[in-house]
Amino acid sequence: MDWTALTLSIRLGLLTVVLLVPLAFVLARWLAFGRFRGRGFVEALVALPLILPPTVLGYYLLVAFGRASPLGQAFEAALGHPLVFSFEGLLLASLLVNLPFAVQPMQNALAAIPPNLRDAARCCGLSPLAAIRRVELPLALPGIATAAVLTFAHTLGEFGVVLMVGGSIPGETRTIAIAIYDRVQAFDEASAGVMALVLLTLSLLALGITNTLARRMVHRH
Amino acid sequence: MSIEFRAPPGSVTALFGPSGSGKSTVLRAIAGLHRSDDALVACGGQRWTDTAAGAFLPAHCRPVGFVFQDYALFPHLTVREQLALAIGHRPRGERAARIEALLALARLEGLAGRKPAALSGGEQQRVALARALARDPSVLLLDEPFAAVDWALRESLRHELATLRRQVSLTVVMVTHDFDDVAKLASHLVVIERGSVSAAGTVADLTSRNAVPGLGGAREPAVALDAHVVAQDPARRLTHLVAGELRLEVPAVPGPVGTVVRIQIGAREVILASRRPEGLSLHNILDARVLAVEPGGHDALRLVHLAVGDARLLSLVTVDAVRMLGLDRGAPVLALVKAVAVEAFA
């Protein structure tokens, strides 16, 4: 059992959730309520990580984060080490890869709020921000929770992109999914089996939670 | 769409017209929920929307109460929380007192802890009304307030609203496609057809002249006007009502002297006579004068417009009766109205 890999995975998952959910909420709200041209294009862009092979995505991220790219150079100048094959690079990749898992449940939950309720909030004297806090957030809460759980679970299980962008540096970029692969490659089936069981349990737990939340959302409306 | 009207302070102005005529859009424009390219909305000298001057007061800054057609109650909040949310920031004691007052006003005391899903349709509407009143609005906007409920509940909700109006002085703008709402609750009427105003005025004036467009056969001609109680006669179980120079005896209507009662008198219910009849089960014999005789929607019928002092009545009679009684313009005639033919709504 590779405890370092497990804690790294959990740290990556939690950080991804904490950073991504608020950002994705803004994006989800824009997609759910905004009236603008090219919404379909933006939605397709958000959904892209769902269908793009992880190696393709990883390749482009590698190029984008690389020492030759402006982003890679800016990051290296700021922190003193390259973005690729670092935890920060992995986190950035994780944010992008998880975009659809975070945006879509929240977008659906927000779109399910009857338009009259948002009008009623305004007629009750709530400013746009107050209306988000007191009406939209509580009503979209199951969707927000689903987004958080899915993002966390998916981060734990992500393999291809992590391997491409992060490599497998212990304590820095070797997540539990990578560790399982390494253990199998080294014919250490016992360790691989334990870690696989841990991931399996966590994934089942996550799906159980999201299903419960989804059911609760259906009951509310 | 080109719609212009004025709702006098303290009035209940009904925007009446078929579905899709644009009346809900007008209501949303007043509330600031709808922005149009060319609009002017002013209230008490303050311009809320003035596209010519580029002014637009956001919806949440307008002192309006809005009752939505489906009530739009927040499913995650209890009745008390809905009211607290609408009241907004006030000192705690003041806020609690205001909540209690609203609960009492809308008769919701026992339901304060419930969420909308645990309320009946009528209770939900009372919550929606109380919530709309929470901010002491200058204007109360009602969008098809009774469309979502069945007939029996509709009538009792109309009574609720009429009662509420007596307790709180308010300017109300109500959208409806049900003329019963107009006849029972509205003081002023704006008829909207295909995006423009086809008639506007007081309900009493428009109904007494049979000049409400769009009703075309959907409703018998009937005069709707406000009367008030001048005396109760418990021994005879009658109430004496007065509307201008129109004095009527009607079956007992509850309420002290001075109570305002909306009455409706259908043209079919008014009998005309040239001599004072005797031995009839009749309470109201009114001295009237013929103002006009117009076609009555059927070859054999005529609608006679009558003046009873400054008040007006309509009577639907046969062509034969017009000839028999010599009902020419200006002719004196007696209008006979059964007490039970006066529909009183209080």
How is this structure best described in words?
The complex is a heterodimer of chains A (about 220) and B (about 350). Chain A has one domain (about 5-35, about 45-220): MetI-like (MetI-like fold). The mean pLDDT of chain A is about 90. Chain A starts with a helix and ends with a helix. In chain A, helix 3 (about 55-65) runs parallel beside helix 9 and helix 10 runs antiparallel to helix 11 (about 190-220). Helix content of chain A is about 80%, strand content about 0%. Chain A is mainly alpha-helical and about 220 residues long. Chain A contains 11 helices and no strands. Chain B is α+β, with helices and mostly antiparallel strands and about 350 residues long. Chain B has 2 domains: about 10-215, Rossmann fold; about 225-345, OB fold (Dihydrolipoamide Acetyltransferase, E2P) (Beta Barrel), CATH 2.40.50. In chain B, about 25% of the residues lie in helices and about 35% in strands. Chain B has 8 helices and 19 strands. In chain B, the strands form 4 sheets. Chain B has a 6-stranded mixed sheet with strand order 5-6-7-1-8-9, with helices on both faces. Chain B has a 5-stranded antiparallel sheet with strand order 12-11-10-13-19. A 5-stranded antiparallel sheet of chain B has the order 14-18-15-16-17. In chain B, strand 2 and strand 3 (about 45-50) form a beta hairpin. The radius of gyration of chain B is 23 Å and the shape is globular. The two termini of chain B are about 35 Å apart. The model of chain B has no long low-confidence stretch (mean pLDDT about 90). The interface of A and B includes residues 119, 122 and 220 of A.
